[in-house]
Amino acid sequence: MSSGSAQADPAPGGPLGGVAEREQLDPIDTAVTPSRRVLVTGASGFIAAHLLPRLASRGHRVRAMWRGNEGPARSLAPGIEWIEGDVTRADSLTAATFECDAIVHLAGCRAPAAGETLEQVNVAGTRNLLVAGLDSGVQRFVYVSAVGASPAAGPYFRSRFHAEDTVMSSGVEHVILRPTVVYGPWDHFVTAILELLRRFPVFPMLGDGTFRLQPVAVEDMVDALTQSVERPDVEGGLYEVAGPDRISFTRIVRTVGEVVGVRRPIIPLPDGIASPVTRLARAAGLATPFTPEQLDVLRWGSVLSGEDNPLRSVFRVKPLPFRDALEDYLSPGSADGYLEGGAS
């Protein structure tokens, strides 16, 4: 497995979400597969909103699978073929995978909906998609897991680990990416922080906020995903993907506030108080980055496990520093996406 941490090298940004063209590391001299028909699951989510137009711009014929939830990708990616499908319903996947050469599997969940389980969505759903893809002759399966996937971790990360095992044992050509927290326009991470900073006189924090994260800009994630579809030499790899900065959640909140000019005291909340506050926030329709489920994800999957960052060493991308990317994403004309939100 390739994993590691990068150093905080300053870099300009990339082409989407208001991020300017950024410095690239020397490219790897490798063949790139010709145009493919690519199925992207989880197409109503914010990563897909950035990935779909990128794949289309590279000449791929893109089919986007969604489960009845509108998302920003529908308006941002014209010319994409849209199809409804649900990974928990195997019979809905035949049409979605038909004549596809590659699948990018973004669909998954951290907290299952009523009547569903993490096993049904993340593990059995991945298996259903693999079976349908193999029946359709899919040549490559790109699975997006999460840093922290382990049989010894919490329920979410266990489900991601078992889904990875399903992919690796399927016999299909595959690439597995384990990102840290991905942020960018239409996310649920910085979006939630922004909403709380703007609506309340204090920022309520579940826990002390000292745990460290290594957030990765969606532009960098999309670069790795695109190369995972196109490059033959990354096949069979399991790669951790992260930004260059290891920073505490408290520092992240303060940085977001500084960039948008909104400073709030950060108030740690013990679990006994945090639970009712979370319920009230949800009832008010507010995004909350400090629910117990999300905090478990952040604490377990916060930083890379080693010193090498495959984003640099494998995909030859110089990862965007957190503050630099935020300043571009939240610049005038680019900040609206953060206020609209999206599914990850």
Describe this structure in words.
- It contains 13 helices and 13 strands.
- The chain is of the alpha/beta class.
- The strands form 4 sheets. Strands 3-2-1-4-5-6-11 form a 7-stranded parallel β-sheet, sandwiched between helices. The protein has a two-stranded parallel ribbon with strand order 7-10. Strands 8-13 form a two-stranded parallel ribbon.
- Strand 1, helix 1 (46-57) and strand 2 form a beta-alpha-beta unit.
- The longest helix is centred in the middle third of the chain and has 19 residues, at 118-136.
- It starts with 36 loop residues before the first strand and ends with a helix.
Query: In terms of per-residue confidence, which ranges show pLDDT below 50 for 5 or more consecutive residues?
Result: 1-20
CATH superfamily: NAD(P)-binding Rossmann-like Domain
Alpha-carbon distance between the termini?
24 Å
Strand order across the largest sheet: 3-2-1-4-5-6-11
Question: Biggest sheet, in brief?
Answer: 7 strands, parallel
Write down the overall geometry: globular
Instruction: Tell me the CATH topology.
Output: Rossmann fold
